[in-house]
Fold:
Amino acid sequence: MPDKTFVFEKGIPGFEQYRTYIRRLEENAPFAHLWAADREEIGFLLVNPFPFCPDYEFDMPEEARREIGIEADSADGMTVWAIVTLQTPVERSTLNLFAPIVMNESSGKGKQIILHESAYSTRHPLVPAGRRAVGGEAL
Amino acid sequence: MLVLSRKKQESLIIGGEIEIKIVAVEGDTVKLGIEAPRHIEVLRKEIYESVRESNRQAAASRADLDQLSNMIGLGKNHPDPSA
Structure:
């Protein structure tokens, strides 16, 4: 899968000045890299949130849908990602389910949406607490 | 910063399309009613700040990302061709 360019019209909170990002998918893993096209020092590790939170759901706000060009009541061509905050040890890493990244694979537009009415956390554990003690287990 | 006084039920208009109305004042809490076009996102500032902070903590350089992927066992099937 080749690298793909995505435009974030409003940037990403904290990095509002960067609008164009490049995404590289990891093969055989639910991860991707996303970095600013103009500045490779600004990058994020993304993960498909659903294997980590099977019940994850949200309503896509209308303004966000318009911004990235997704039809109402349709998720066609849309992918959902969570930003990972890596910690040491890696098992303590967290994902941001409160502000997921949505990407329109056809239009090449992306947005970080803020689910301000939800109870999701910006620090959802990547590994459930009960499993953290298991050493060496693949994530 | 522009500072101005408003009474209950009075409003402000910003840019001709955003209206902010003082709905109620109870002690040190002011209740605001906001009418804005749908493409204008309205958020409590501390919520936006928490997302910024989380993003800043999560940010890593592209080189770090590659290294981290290798560390956690990703990407070993397709080493970076430029390496």
Notes: The interface with chain A takes residues 38-41, 43-44, 47-48, 50-66, 68-69, 71-75, 77-78 of chain B (CB under 8 Å).
